[in-house]
Amino acid sequence: MKYRTLWISDLHLGTQHSAVEELMDFLKHNEFETIYLVGDIIDLWQLKRKHYWPQSHNDVIQKLLRKSRKGSKIIYIPGNHDEFMTSFIGNYGNVSIQKQAIHTTVKGKTYIVVHGHEFDMISKNVQWISVIGDIGYQILLNLNGVVNWSRRIFNLEPWSLSAYVKNKAKLVANFVSKFEDAITHFAELHKTTGIICGHIHSPAKRKIGKHEYWNTGDWVESKSALVEHLDGRMEIIQ
Length: 238
Known about the structure:
It contains 7 helices and 12 strands. By secondary structure, the protein is α/β, with parallel strands linked by helices. The protein has one domain (2-237): Metallo-dependent phosphatases (Purple Acid Phosphatase, chain A, domain 2).
């Protein structure tokens, strides 16, 4: 299928939980005029702790580069896990590395595109807590495998313990709410229709005040993407 624009974030290449097979299938069967990589594409935090880079993760990078060579414009906006990419801000053929971007749809709507870690006060000001939280999240992801091994024995559908904890924890819910409010205010300051981001691994579409908030989700659990159709219609695909 042909789309005008694709936004994906939080691939976390370099970790065992990156859904590279599903992502490759999605990229193989769809074409895009513009691709926004909205941060945390490569997980340098995990790579520093444990080297993990199978060929399948390299294939994702090669697939994206092939799309750029065939005419797709790629805009890479680094996140907190791949912040090292900010050292390479600039244009490289059909690939552009930027801290943030403004996107205008066919219908004339404007969106500021950022990863979102800039509005996460823990990630911004107390990084060691953020690192501990990341380790805890990785432990929950590992436990998903044990839980679903047990469920398969009883012919039960797969279930995500990490997603359940994330969705039910009151502290997390409060954090997400504050994050969404802060990031939407950023759209207000830039006088755009809304904002597109990633970072919190929760795909979302909602109206906050006068502005649209879109979160691309991730390619760890939700396996989601935001797309703009050729007619300008926006949609989250899971």
